[in-house]
Design a protein that fits this description.
- InterPro entries: Iontro_rcpt_C, Solute-binding_3/MltF_N, TAT_signal.
- It comes from Candidatus Coprovicinus avistercoris.
- This is Amino acid ABC transporter substrate-binding protein.
- By secondary structure, the chain is of the alpha/beta class.
- The protein has 2 domains: about 140 residues, Periplasmic binding protein-like II (D-Maltodextrin-Binding Protein, domain 2, 3-Layer(aba) Sandwich); about 100 residues, Periplasmic binding protein-like II (D-Maltodextrin-Binding Protein, domain 2).
- It has 9 helices and 14 strands.
- A 5-stranded mixed beta sheet has the order 6-3-7-14-8, sandwiched between helices. It has a 5-stranded mixed beta sheet with strand order 11-10-12-9-13, with helices on both faces.
- Helix 1 runs antiparallel to helix 9.
- It is globular, with a radius of gyration of 19 Å.
- About 45% of the residues are buried.
Length: about 270
Amino acid sequence: MTSTPIMSRRSVMLGMLAVCATGSALAGCSNNQSSASGDESYTLVEEGKLTLLSDYGYPALASIVDGQPEGFEIDLVGAVCDRLGLEPNWLPMQKFDTIIPTIEQGGRADMASASITITDERAERVDFSDPYMDSNQAVVVPASDADSVTVDSLNVAGTQVAVQSGTTGDAWAKENLPNATVVPLDDAISCLTGLQTGLYQAAVADLPAMVYLINTSYTDLAVGIEVPTGEQYGWAINKDNTGLTAAVNTALAALIEEGTVDELMEKWLGETI
């Protein structure tokens, strides 16, 4: 199995949020900004710029190539910035499991875009934009094992399962494979590389990124199990900056309606999700 299609499950909301401006400020921020429409006001770390966090861990979604960020999420955030009249300012790579705490604390970045699944637990700590992409989890194994692997066959002592630390794949593996050894790593590439070299017996991570990587780089691996977790990605924003959430949602709704989101998915992933 060398190519695995991604199921299309578009369920991003098309309605715009109507949230009143609050005047609250991120800790350490004093730059006030109004959206291009003038309907929402918000604070920014640096005037005229949307300062952004990412782990740049998923090629085609967000990664660093020749020193520059690129991918679907990078282009989509750029389109949002165009609508808000802001310049995107991508900060250096940050480990995924530190992104939510950094946004929660405030003062360093305005928003995080890192294929972050919206969960109730995370939503207690940060605000989320409307969803811009759907996802499930993928259990990746050597292609020769793809037709025979099951959750039960992995859930045995001695099995090493690689995950990206702090992700929903990490949480799923710990809950559903209690007898296996779940090995947290910094990024999905490390998970697949370790699986490819025989260090691990399986890897669990987000389906869209895994399919892209398998089809383009790790052709001796395959998705053995698609776990229908029904996840959705959203941008993380500090809870005190609800005006920014509203402005981002307004821009996202317009980009969905005009077809820009679908166009960018086709460009980077080869299909809409």
